[in-house]
């Protein structure tokens, strides 16, 4: 039951010059399921990515890091669902390399020019021969207008595909930013999330791509949580085909750089929020906004304490303004010298807590009214400084338990 | 549905010379419910406590800290359920003080000689007049054999009372250690848990009581988690009435000190584990044992990452050996230079992971067999050193969601 999320309309997903996508049914785990996606990039494209900080990172993540470190021009990405190829040791690493090599051979590039991605069950052997067998069909399907179908092709427990697109004028040219993402559980990206792919035809200096993807991740995928579980496979990749025809962007803080960054942030945030809206079992979309902190880091501590608390999340599920649970989470967030008498709390427009205690003017029915909404903003003011942080999350429902108790069966 | 937990048998709860307990129905939140407990201590008793590290600590916790800091001899404790008196600001503090003063007046001691405790809903006004009105009945009920009824009197969402008792020979005398605890949700004590009370008649130098209660908490209540939510009211109190008649214990590392410590640890661990066994919605009791770490702190990081992961906890609920979720949790626990190729994992006697990958000898049916048990030990070897840590937790079930979505209604 996704929260205010619709399937993307294919016609509104603008093609990015230099990017073609192909989808196939490879039967990685189950038959008759789009589970293999190839993204082909034109010569001259630049690619940067950020990956999970989970020390148990998956084999394909390790191969991606290696290939990006080599510095060769990436020409293709291959993504399978149904199997994460994580917790699979040296054999898993060999299978990830074999996947990249197989696609490289079929498109006529070096293995280092291919990035492999996997998502699905952890600790099972990747059936690489099925992926190899599926590649010709995916390549035959390549098209610039396949963004919507590719979004479907990377889904696992997602109930809807996730895609976003923006166009912006830079140097008199129309620049496109289009992306897809997936994910609904094991979501607390610590660097980026499994999986986000955003492409633009902007002409940007390749050296700027890595700072841009990092900044975009920090403003989007690194600000969402569903269950606090950081995946082994989180990957967020930004592609610039550099075909839009305007003068090269050589600084992110130039007017053109800022215009591009705004478009990339908007696409990344929409994709990240789509993951929360489609969170496993989600019935509410919650924005947690912490203000008045000394540092952004301590605001994040408080925001994540609220966003991860099973007690807070079940109260949202129940539409129960049991707001003391939010205060308790702020209290144990790890801000050592927090003064509870300075805390103010708002639920949307309702002023619930003042000077650390219940606001005398607060009426339960006002809290109840807000809690019944599908979208709720919790705003906590720490009264210590000027820093702030925002995190997006969802509630914890019976369906979350059902989905994760049944996932493999 | 508590996991292998029976109600304590009153006759097996040995009275502690110098301690009497009285229980009453004060109607704090609901009528016809034992919700008020008074514990009276004989002159010469020593008391030490550890309290929640939640910065949003409740008013009674603040009052307890003040009264213990004054150093006056504590002569009585008063505990109410139904209302936590947390998130209640200056008014809540005044009401906690008034509770202590009311009991002090009725037993003829100074207010500073009374410790107040509250547990229940957060952010609601404590009906102190109902507690005052209930005190005479609680005092009329005082008896040395009331430990079992007092355990019932401090329950909230607990389904069973929790009590434990041990006797040990010290200096030719029988020394008794008896205690009670409560708690089923908002359980991730960061210092001690809401609420644990352990009393002994051991003759122990009062200065040793604080290090002993701290050590006991670290070996028991500070090693359990149900939902990762650290309560605003956690309190663990150790009382020594010093009436057992043996020579005074003046060092914890003496033979007598070690004998007493072992008995206190045993009672505290049984009480702490009882809280997990009665965890909200619990169907499994899980021991998470991390070995081979460089430091105890990093072992705890890994243990809590596993014990808090909703994905791991739902897999236990489903009896599904989806063990990659445990590896993922170890990976994101925050051990910066963890080498995944050195990880070994066991589920009871079943060797699941070797060198970071699936053990070739592992068979799914063996994992399945263990996962179906009501008590499971997860053992992870990090391959980095000789430190270890153990944490006790339970699974995450539909009933946890139901209980916490309905708690206030």
Automatic annotation (TrEMBL), chains A, B:
Function of the molecule: Catalyzes two activities which are involved in the cyclic version of arginine biosynthesis: the synthesis of N-acetylglutamate from glutamate and acetyl-CoA as the acetyl donor, and of ornithine by transacetylation between N(2)-acetylornithine and glutamate.
Coiled-coil stretches noted in the UniProt entry, renumbered to this chain: none
Q: In which broad location class does this protein mainly occur, judging by the first location in its UniProt entry?
A: cytoplasm
Sorted keywords for this record are: Acyltransferase, Amino-acid biosynthesis, Arginine biosynthesis, Autocatalytic cleavage, Cytoplasm, Multifunctional enzyme, Transferase
What residues bind substrate, as annotated?
A: 156, 182, 193, 280, 404, 409
Query: Can you list the GO cellular component terms from the UniProt entry?
Result: cytoplasm
Q: Where does the record place the site Involved in the stabilization of negative charge on the oxyanion by the formation of the oxyanion hole?
A: 119-120
Localization terms from the record: Cytoplasm
> Under what name is this protein listed?
Arginine biosynthesis bifunctional protein ArgJ
Top-level division of the source organism's lineage: Bacteria
